[in-house]
């Protein structure tokens, strides 16, 4: 009886919608699904407690990208795209990667190059949904981040004793603590910044702050903590003149920080140290031990300019853990220059935008990625960091009306 009533209600609501509204709602759902598959493609798979073979888990993640492409084509059948500088820069990265493939390389380089090209094609197909007042892509990203954190906490309930060195990580879908911290930090910023602008309810923001803040604390990830604080502060500074709520936020923030420094300094130092000694802190938990040999590695002129091709961002079996050095290793000086140009372009574009929630969110995302780039990788590959920058670029364009994509 209840199912019959639900079906009848659904048909009645559909009948009340006009053809344009029905198409728009269906298009939004497909855009959201395409974005979800893009996010799934970016997730690192490191095993699972449900005994999914590693090869199968990676195949699921990699198979999400063709599905995202098909969904993007279904919603943008006319292949309408918005010309923009940001994606043109990503195309330069793709061209550079293709040039390195022309020289005999490992098969992984060829596959990663094709994956990056396909990833960028999907991003181009979603550009008609840039600049919307409802910030559809931001909402899709928030839902995807909620789903990821939900899987992480569900894993805690299923297997509470499994953790990566006492740090919160995903066990249902193997996600390392640093990536969990990234997702929690971005979700926190995407809720706090709209709340500062009066665009988000206080109840929802409080829920996000509790869930994402707890996740961030349990991962013990310093980079994500520093990056999210810097991103929120920069976004708030862009609003301080126009929003009284932001001025109150800075006053409360100053009081809280002062109390924390005075009364909880020992706890904060212990949390930040994570049981590491002075030597580990100064060399960034062993990261700098890789950076020196990487820079000293001999290169010819071609490799210096275009790098060795896309890889898993490692050097001699060790993770590079720096976007700038990983870009130099994989795509040479070209990759470093393009990454820097991406950030500079987005910051300059944000400077010329009117004050508001879209500008503030863009500044948060760019600042977060800039701070995290010193110990994280991802600007030159199909990754969540590239999606973060893409979202920032989508917020810094004017709305276009009257353009059909289906």
Describe it.
The protein is globular and about 60 Å long. The chain has helices at residues 2-16, 19-42, 54-75, 85-101, 107-125, 136-158, 177-196, 202-219, 222-237, 244-263, 265-273, 278-282, 288-296, 301-306, 323-351, 357-372, 384-395; strands spanning 314-315, 318-319. Helices cover 69% and strands 1% of the residues. Helix 3 (54-75) packs parallel to helix 5 and helix 6 (136-158) packs across helix 7 (177-196). The protein has one domain (21-395). The chain is mainly α and 406 residues long. The mean pLDDT is 86. The protein contains 17 helices and 2 strands. A hairpin with a 2-residue loop joins strand 1 (314-315) and strand 2 (318-319). The chain starts with a helix and ends in an 11-residue tail after the last helix. It has a two-stranded antiparallel sheet with strand order 1-2.
Quick structural overview:
By secondary structure, this protein is mostly helical. 69% of the residues lie in helices and 1% in strands. The chain is globular and about 60 Å long.
Q: Layout of SSEs?
A:
Layout: H1 2-16, H2 19-42, H3 54-75, H4 85-101, H5 107-125, H6 136-158, H7 177-196, H8 202-219, H9 222-237, H10 244-263, H11 265-273, H12 278-282, H13 288-296, H14 301-306, E1 314-315, E2 318-319, H15 323-351, H16 357-372, H17 384-395
Antiparallel strand pairs: 1-2
Helix pairs in contact: 2-3, 2-6, 3-5, 4-5, 4-15, 6-7, 7-8, 7-9, 7-16, 9-16, 15-16, 16-17
